[in-house]
Design goal:
Layout lengths: L2 H22 L5 H32 L6 H31 L5 H4 L2 H57 L1 H19 L1 H21 L5 E2 H19 L3 E6 L8 E2 L3 H12 L8 E8 L2 E7 L12 H13 L5 E4 L3 E7 L12 H41 L8 H19 L3 H22 L1
Parallel strand pairs: 2-4
Antiparallel strand pairs: 1-3, 4-5, 5-7, 6-7
Helix pairs in contact: 1-2, 2-3, 2-5, 3-5, 5-10, 5-11, 6-7, 7-8, 8-9, 11-12
């Protein structure tokens, strides 16, 4: 327990002792006042401290959020056993050792069994309150933590993805202007055509850059248009070969991936009429491949690698499949995974999410209902016992509501935490998961 809890117990015991001293003590002496404080602190620190330490211990070993059913069963069993032991210990120290009102034999007689039973119910009330309070605090803490984590993950992923996509605009524009500036000097007429074509291509860039995935067919058509522009500048120095299977056209790749890789081919390799640069775009085993013969150009400054790293990072955000890079003395190849379907960015459908929320809400209400029932039992039954014993009634009628309500409370506990609808749902899910795993193994 924390230091603040001990301070709270001290003030509670002091307040209780003052109440009993001024309300029920006939001889108001300093000695009796000290006795009252001692007895009050005995019960406060032993019962309150013991239940508090038990709750803290269970919170560390078996948190509510990780194993609700197991924790509830252990909490009920442990508080019953612990309070039974602590109450008998406190009462024995109080009546036998401190007040010396009775002997040990008398303390364990039938008369004091009723007093012990009454005190046990009061202790159970305190313990039930502490455990219910701990459950609600843990539930709120877990809910806040999950919400914050999901918001941070979503914000981080969105920011990272937007950052990657925003790199495309300046990268594409910079390379296109370099090509245009070269054409203006070499062939002004072609430069005009290039400018018109570049505007069409840039329109495609603006349309597709906000998309997470595009079809292979759209990307190939765009790549062909872009290759025609490159062909305008390099003429016979560069050859492009497209050999993508028609059945792969409806698969998906990240947008502008071919354009970035084509730029890299031109940027890092020299091309002449005698030694043309041959760039092949083809499909191979579920991947879209871009391959060129290696004719490495001497670099004045080291490349930033923004194009290829951009593609790799965008794929990492969308799928577990990797981008493969192969390099030999003769060729350089990049393999892009072709996805058969767009991945679900949201793992749970809205309808399923609503149903899951309603189930969780219903579960929380069931648990809260049980603890409300338990706290009510611990308040009302001791009150009935008090009335029955101190009114001098010969018949102990409090046993009937205590046993009847106790049986109902036990049934409620089994229904909420172990046996009942929740247990049936668990078994159904378990059987369905087994059948699902068996079917997956046969595929």
């Amino acid at each position: 327990m924390k230091r603040n809890n001990f301070i709270t117990l001290f003030w509670v015991s002091l307040a209780v002792s003052m109440f009993f001293f001024f309300a029920f003590t006939s001889e108001k002496t300093i000695e009796n006042f000290l006795y009252t404080i001692l007895i009050s602190m005995l019960y406060s620190f032993v019962l309150g401290g013991g239940n508090g330490m038990l709750n803290s211990f269970l919170n560390k070993r078996i948190p509510w959020a990780e194993a609700t059913t197991k924790r509830a069963i252990l909490s009920i069993a442990s508080i019953l056993i612990l309070n039974f032991v602590l109450v008998y210990f406190c009462n024995y120290v109080n009546f036998v050792l401190i007040q010396k009102a009775v002997t040990t034999e008398t303390f364990f007689s039938e008369k004091y069994n009723f007093i012990n039973w009454f005190t046990i119910n009061v202790a159970l009330l305190i313990s039930a309150f502490l455990h219910a309070k701990g459950f609600m605090e843990e539930l709120k803490k877990t809910s806040r933590k999950e919400v914050v984590e999901q918001k941070l993950i979503a914000k981080s992923a969105n920011a990272q993805f937007e950052s990657l996509k925003n790199q495309l605009d300046p990268h594409f524009l910079f390379n296109s202007l370099n090509v245009l500036s070269s054409l203006i000097d070499e062939n002004p007429q072609q430069a005009q055509k290039f400018t018109a074509s570049m505007s069409k291509i840039y329109r495609y860039v603006l349309e597709q850059k906000d998309k997470e995935l595009v079809t292979v067919e759209d990307e190939i058509e765009f790549a062909k248009t872009y290759c025609n522009l490159l062909k305008t500048r390099f003429e016979d120095s560069v050859d492009f070969v497209f050999d993508v299977a028609k059945e792969d056209y409806q698969k998906y790749v990240v947008p502008l991936s071919l354009q970035l890789l084509l730029e890299n081919c031109i940027k890092h390799n020299f091309a002449t009429s005698s030694k043309p640069l041959v760039i092949r775009i083809f499909s191979d085993g579920g991947t879209l491949c871009i391959e060129n013969n290696l004719q490495v150009r001497e670099q004045i400054k080291e490349s930033s690698g923004i194009g290829l790293s951009n593609i790799v990072q965008r794929y990492a955000l969308l799928t577990k499949r990797n981008v493969f890079i192969e390099k030999s003395e003769d060729y350089f190849k990049v393999k892009l995974p072709m996805l058969s379907a767009k991945p679900n960015i949201v793992s749970v459908k809205p309808d399923d999410e609503i149903k899951a929320y309603k189930r969780a809400q219903k579960r929380v209400k069931e648990i809260k209902g049980f603890y409300t029932n338990l706290i009510s039992y611990c308040i009302i039954i001791p009150f009935l016992i008090f009335i029955n014993l101190f009114t001098g009634s010969r018949s102990h009628w409090f046993w009937f509501p205590a046993l009847g309500w106790g049986i109902g409370l036990a049934s409620h506990a089994f229904q909420v935490f172990g046996i009942g609808e929740s247990w049936q749902e668990k078994k159904i899910r378990e059987i369905m998961n087994q059948q699902k795993n068996r079917n997956n193994g046969n595929i």
